[in-house]
């Protein structure tokens, strides 16, 4: 972790942002590893016992409570043990992500604006680390899939899929952590995101008219960005669930719609933030 002088780390921001990057990366990775472990278990004989079915029903009730009965899991599974592991992985990853989200909301509400305190060299080091992690993650994914294509013909489908998904989990961890670690030094991005927790009627009430109009404009763009992101990701989640649970459309690439929609959401968010920076705070650094 990049060392910052105690007097320069405003409100413990660097520690908070680094922990947030770790929590989000770990949460996403745990979900993918759950599916990888489920794939490995498919290589074992199926044991569809009464006890296993009770566990499946219990998970269904739990998810029903968590989602207010919006999601209902199918009780009959081709390989229920793999299904159980996958659902447990989703629940653990979801818990990590939810905790990171709640912690970010609390921090953003407490400190909704932080002026830039990172030096140019500190920001550069963050992006260098990001680049190294992206290269490392890409190498792991490509090398693993290359080896599977060359030497994996004798493996069972479950083993090969598990190895491939494990490599993807490793790569995704590198991408997510590296990206969030680097962008933590962009305090305009943090301030823009933190505006979600600010009451619009209290925003800038003790500041000049020009300053208040600037903050209100940023707040409107922040709300727009948040709405677009939530809508786009929701479509991706529905698509992934459809490809996973619907027998007609079931595919091992069920995660692809979610990845595509997250990519689209990130692009739209980038354009909105870029516009906000240029329009309202072009000199923020």
From TrEMBL:
The chain crosses the membrane at residues 20-41, 130-152, 158-183, 221-246, 252-272. It comes from the Bacteria. Keywords: Membrane, Transmembrane, Transmembrane helix. This is Transcriptional regulator. It comes from Bifidobacterium animalis subsp. animalis MCC 0483.
